[in-house]
Amino acid sequence: MSYPGRLLRLILLVFAAPLVAEPLRVGVSFAIPPYVITHEDRGIELDLLREAFAGSDHVPEFTYLPLERTFRMLEEGKLDAIINVKPGMLNNAHLSQAVITFHNRVFTLDKTAFHTMRDLQTLRVSAFQRARQILGKEFAELVDQNPHYEEVARQEGQVQKLLLGRTDAVILEQRVFYYYMTQLLGQTEGSVRYSSDRVRQHDLFPPTQYHFAFRQATAQRWFDRQLSRMKEDGRYERIFAAYGASSSYRNIKASP
């Protein structure tokens, strides 16, 4: 084979070789099923990320951490992206278009007298991390005066405490609450059997649109382009449907 022929063959081999995808380090808060199912390394939001970056030079790699720590690590450059961010919550990050809509609700038992947001000032309240920043100024001012208010990283424990009467009110995204409640129904702790009959939900907060945050603008722009295509061709809605859900934020279960 002539020299030009060998050179051409070498060039073709170089360009035909598969590119090695680089990891995209994504910080994910502890299990918030069906959005994030930690022990299965999947969920609506994880599947959206994987689908969006399929065929790119990045492969999402998920690290499960407390929500507060994901924010800190992104700002320190130890992560490339995090999920579930609102504008104004981060500095030096590139936010995607709105990815998902959550509807946070207050859940109580039927014996708890609950009528308005002001009742959260005196009850034992358990909320998700960063609820103060997400749920508005009025909410933050009320719970700041409540010594029995807490924010926790693991939501399963919140639902369990409510069903056992160990807290008065739980603030949680509706799909997450009902996912965990379904897991607990029929189980017992000591002589107490978990039951959903006494659970009441209260609609105090408007739906919240969340974005994903990226350290690099190129990754954010890629994700936005692909997410728009997924919404247009139906893949976005099919990912929700795979978990028995839809992208609609409308009430999924009314109080008895």
From TrEMBL:
SMART domains: PBPb (SM00062). Pfam families: SBP_bac_3. The keyword Signal applies. Keywords: Signal. It comes from the Bacteria. Transmembrane segments: none annotated. InterPro entries: Solute-binding_3/MltF_N (IPR001638). Residues 23-247 form the Solute-binding protein family 3/N-terminal domain. Belongs to the bacterial solute-binding protein 3 family. This is Transporter substrate-binding domain-containing protein. It comes from Aeromonas media.
